[in-house]
Amino acid sequence: MAREVRRRRVVRLAVAGAIALAAPLAALGWLLGIPATAPTPQVSFEHLVVVSNVSLLALLVAVLVARNAIQQRAVKVLLLGLGFGAMGGFFAVHALATPGVILPASGLTFSGGTYHEEHGAASVLGISAYLSLLVPALFFTARYLPLDWLSSRLRTISRFLAGAIAVLLVIYGLLGLRTPDTVGLLPLLQSPFVYIAAAITVALLLYSAWRQAQEFSGSGLPMQAAQVIAFLLLADAQLAMVVSPVWSLAWWAYHVIMLAAVLLALWALFLELDRRRGFERFLSAAVVERVMSGEAIPLGGERKVVTILFTDLRGSTTLAEKLPPDAVVGVLNSYVGTMAQCVFDQGGILDKYLGDGLMAIFGVLAGPAGGVAAAARTVQEIRKQLAALNAERTSRGEQAVQFGSGIHTGEVILGAVGSPRRSDYTAIGDTVNTASRLESLCKEFHVDSVISGDAAAFLDGGAVQALGTTAIRGKEHEVAVFTLT
């Protein structure tokens, strides 16, 4: 059944993609039969308005998309946002290079396979148009490289990339618009560079469309299909740019195609970010990235063997008696927030907050062995992070806060429970109850972690230390328990 669903998705997308490629090219073929005319002041003004609006739209939405992508640590979306930012920047130079605006009017024409002009200004118009697609295509393609390592450094790297793009655009714009005759851009337009650059751009855009189609076949998310169509339309725009005489109706058509592609892609990006926000209420950024790329997660309900982790702060009740309410909430937020971040860093799913603790699920995508290992790493990371917090508090003469944790592996029912307007992804079953009761045993054994034998079986012997056996409410026989070393 799943294979049939994927096949239908691919067929529908293939039909839509074929139409997106063929329809603009068919219209272009008809428009090429209409001769070009020299630009008049009115035509130049219209070109400035149309291109400026496209540029401003791309820049504005690119900034909003990039900012949200940084907050959600969505590397792929950030690269798309930067790509559209570069497109908006080069298209802004393209708009400002309109003859008779900042630079003198010039008669740039296309005949015999080469460009001809009376003034160097018009070459800026042409080169800016090519760069407005080539540079973004590089960013779009980079999205499909292995970029998981970027997530932890996303804010720093995004600032560097955005700054580098802005500096290059300013330098290019100043040189092109202030000294167009000395930049020497016209020879590029009269050389094979035009066709090589266009071929590279089209190849990159088609590759991006193909990779995005693969993700759509797995996820079925509408925004994935919209991005495929947008990439194909941009490839059409690049082809139209190469073959169309300047100022002809066919030349104007590539501007319209680019506008349609930008609007479609940016709508898809906003939709994807909104969908990500919904997922990230209970999934880490890394897991969301995998889900958005097509990996299945059982939101509708499924029986699965997973690992459940419960954590709880020790001494929070005493703390609440000594501190004012706002100070207590502040302390709990710092400690519980740190524990939640440790869960996310190890790819876990945050099920819920429990006042001064939390419940997390591991192994939904990784399997039982991977889930236990990730849960164990989470506890070890919590140890280090809370030790650092306690060191800061004790240095100020404040009370340290300890924690306890329980880990158990077994079968649960997974799914999103609630109403369409408000739901939570959760696990239900005896495994959950057992993990909670194991966490409460930390006080009895004077340790910060109690792990069941079922979970310990997936770890190396040196990673755990036996605590013995104990009775657990709801279990007919005593169970073996361990602690993480």
Number of strand segments: 10
Give the overall shape.
elongated
Structural class: alpha+beta
Low-confidence stretches: 109-115
Encode the helix/strand succession as letters. HHHEEHHHHHHHHEHHEEHEEHHEHEE
CATH architectural category of the largest domain: Up-down Bundle
Alpha-carbon distance between the two ends: 46 Å
Note the main sheet.
8 strands, mixed
Number of discrete helical segments: 17
In which range does the helix fraction lie?
A: 55-70%
Which assembly state applies to the chains in this document?
single chain
What CATH calls the topology of the largest domain is Rhopdopsin 7-helix transmembrane proteins
CATH hierarchy, class of the largest domain = Mainly Alpha
Count of spatially separate domains: 2
Based on CA atoms alone, the radius of gyration comes out at 29 Å
- What is the arithmetic mean of pLDDT? 78
**Beta-strand residue percentage:** 5-15%
Topology:
Blueprint: H1 2-31, H2 41-71, H3 75-96, E1 109-111, E2 114-116, H4 121-142, H5 154-178, H6 180-183, H7 186-189, H8 193-219, H9 222-243, H10 249-279, H11 285-292, E3 302-314, H12 316-322, H13 325-345, E4 349-353, E5 357-362, H14 368-395, E6 402-418, E7 423-428, H15 430-440, H16 442-445, E8 450-452, H17 453-456, E9 464-470, E10 479-484
Parallel strand pairs: 6-8
Antiparallel strand pairs: 1-2, 3-5, 3-6, 4-5, 6-7, 8-10, 9-10
Task: Give a structural overview.
With 485 residues, the chain is of the alpha+beta class. The chain is built from 17 helices and ten strands. The protein is elongated. The protein has helices spanning 2-31, 41-71, 75-96, 121-142, 154-178, 180-183, 186-189, 193-219, 222-243, 249-279, 285-292, 316-322, 325-345, 368-395, 430-440, 442-445, 453-456; strands at 109-111, 114-116, 302-314, 349-353, 357-362, 402-418, 423-428, 450-452, 464-470, 479-484. α1 (2-31) packs antiparallel against α10 (249-279), α3 (75-96) runs antiparallel to α4 (121-142) and α3 (75-96) runs antiparallel to α10 (249-279). It has two domains: 2-286, Up-down Bundle (Rhopdopsin 7-helix transmembrane proteins); 297-484, Nucleotide cyclase, GGDEF domain (Alpha-Beta Plaits, 2-Layer Sandwich), CATH 3.30.70.1230.
